[in-house]
Model the fold of this input.
Amino acid sequence: MATAKWPAIDKRTLIGKRIDRADGPVKAAGVARYSFDINRPGMLWAKLVVSPHARAELVSIDVSEAASMPGVKATWKDDSLLGKEVQYIGQIVAAVAAETEEIAQEAAGKVKAQYKPLAHQANDRDPTLSKDKPATRNTGNVDEAFAKADVKVEGEYGIPVITHCCLESHGQVAELRNDELHVWPSTQAVSSYADVSISDASGVPRNKIRVDCQYMGGGFGSKFNPGKWGVISSALAKQAGRPVKLMLDRDLELMIAGNRPSAFAKIKVGAMKDGTLTAMETEVWGTAGMGGGVPQQIPYVIDRIPNVRLTAKRIQTNRGPAAAWRAPNHPQSCFLTMSALADTAAALKMDELEFFLKAVQLSARAEVYSEELRIAADLIGYKQKAHLRGDPSGGSVKRGLGMSVHTWGGRGHPSECDVTINPDGSVEAKLGSQDLGTGNRTVIAIVVAETLGLPLEAVRIEIGRNAYPTSGGSGGSTTVGGVSTSSRFAATDALNALFAVVAPKMGVQPDALEANGGYIRQIDKPDNRISWRNACALLGVNSITKRGVNVPGESEKQGFISQGVGGVQMADVSVDIETGVATINEMVAVQDCGMIIDLKTAESQVYGSLIMGVAYALYEEAIYDLKTGRMLNADMEFYRLSGLKDVGKLKVHMMTSKAYDDRGIIGLGEPPVISPGAAIANAVANAVGVRVPHLPLTPDRVIAALQKGGII
Amino acid sequence: MSEKLKSSQVPGVSRRGFLKGLGVSGVATGLLTGTETPTEAAERGSPIKGPGEIPITLQINGKKHQLSVEPRVTLLDALRNRLDLTGSKKVCDRGTCGACTVIVDGQPVYSCSMLAVEAEGRAITTIEGLGTAENMNPVQKAFVKHDAQQCGFCTPGFVVACTAFLKTNPNPTLEDARTGLGGNLCRCGTYAGIMDAVLDAAKMTKGGA
Ligand code: FES
Ligand code: FES
Done:
């Protein structure tokens, strides 16, 4: 009988190997239909009308002129906002749907909204603007520890608001048909997407909302719910009696569809001459728009410093709202902490690697980090290249190394999966899950095929519909653990049901059988075997369908999944001190994530994180004009992502030894994106000899820091 | 893999190159100067089109398509919204990201930055004309092999740009490719795979694959 327990490393045929992305060909050929690509017969295009004021009272909205334009088929306005405040530029007040996108755009310009402008606040750099009672944390005796410390190192650091900039913007196509609402959203949570908001907007009960998202172009935490755009397109579709497509234009995607909160901090570190950390005091502030909070995990990872004091102040601003952004709060906490620690090493004139090797002893995973630091140092050639802060060589181009450590939880979300074995030998797995580009389809296919002893092509994976068994949203690096476990359980049960049918014909008990290489065979007499096809033919006319359920607490206890990982990253940069331009020579990422299902797509996650990290370290910032409250760079020319030329050489090392593998599946979407900002900033400081305190490390900031430090 | 910097200019498809080749469409960028006014166009003998819908014929992937568009409709919107050719993606809609790249008369072009009426009478190749999921071209094969895609939303643009790039640069160095494909952006961070894929596709193409 087949057991669900993960197969031993040496027994695996697919799990842990380097396997091509299952949907690679359809994506590369351009035939994968993303939600943005759904065109329905008779479909209308919708465009939004948004507030031009950062804060104002909405006095009136008049859509009549727009509604009377030829080609306009439906209009929507937010009457609930009348007499109330709009709180940021880009806040949606109305919408129109028309026969063509061009007509909709023109009609949106004819909607007349009247406002009474009010004073706004868009500044997130000044902690005195915080109106809340600060959050505080206190451990040990900080004052006493500072009094006894050999060195006290003080610094101020900052990491700005950045946005998600998903290449496929947010939105959906909505269509009412036969009392059902069909939606094709760009979402990272297929099973929970049909919520009360679109039900109310369409008048269709939640259980009659059909969600379909086969391919989506990036979410990064910002696409769990329908959002106002989902609500509006549902309402417009109902009103017009025709399908409606509403996808955000790029400027709105950048302004209102979510962002990562900023974090600025004054940090004081107390340490002994030998690098022993004794105290850390932090005042941190930042903004998540009107709601949200401030990152507070400081000290990050090195969290067993005995004496710690933290004050956190949230600043409310009239800016677009925040949304989960890969590893919420971690990149900020990491950047602030690791910058302060590297500055401490510099003040002690201590080698940074030696310092961090000591510092990680004050973490929950001292052994993992120590091992990973050594591997990373090896891969980047630390011994040959390292120097104390400030490249001693002449010339205007300075080179330096920097490092950072990070952690994340993972585990696996609740997930259900149906695996069906058909009499013709075909196999399918169905889950209400989604593939954000992480390789989720591929992972499920690998697990099911491995379980049934079949080649990958023999299983069909159906995801992306809420009609399928409920599976969690893709967030917090929980998908791979969730879907792998539920599909493993389902496939194992289905296989055992097949064994029960086949065993009598083979003259054995079901528990004497195994599935291997396209055969069902007797474990201790492999020659007694029957091909998969013939075995399935014995089912007659009845397929076998079994449901697997991942209950996270249970499967964690049984060792299928786990949580808590460590990762180390190092950066090698060059900085031209005449121009202030920082360039990445090389980045190294060493990462553990427990048992790996597909090494190829797992590595891609880490490469991708490094590249995203280069972007937020060197280029990305949502720049706001304080006077108007407007985001000045709400386009992709000036909200800069990294390009091919910017990323240098990248090396990824996954921790795959048995000890890591034995932990079960953990998840990988978040952890590797946490450290790049800190590692790169520390490398720049190591190169030029002074701290450039604020990300992104743009030439003007580098030059300013060099001038302040008297370097130029 | 050579990482040597080549000092010679790469005859590639950088963003500036794209825009220079585009002519008079309403590209919203500071890079273009001297957009022609309707009067100037009339003086030059260009017929004034619109403002209503006008019938045009586009030659896409070797097939003629007749459609009716307002002159303000971009080639990208005509492909996606009128002809249901949705492989070309709309991402920035401003000539920055390359997700909408198509080949017009042999040159890679941002289809969001060209009007549909401008594309009349020219040979247009879109991602749909480059190979199928079952029968991929060498670039597509290499993209799959090197996992040069995650969400894949930037992928069709990259595949078209790479295909055009390799036509004019059959033996690119890593640095050539980085420059030549600098007009395309990816958010998921697939550049490592893309670099391997381009160089491998160059080899496959030479090998006659
Ligand atoms: S959509 Fe055309 S370049 Fe970005
Ligand atoms: S793969 Fe997602 S944007 Fe490139």
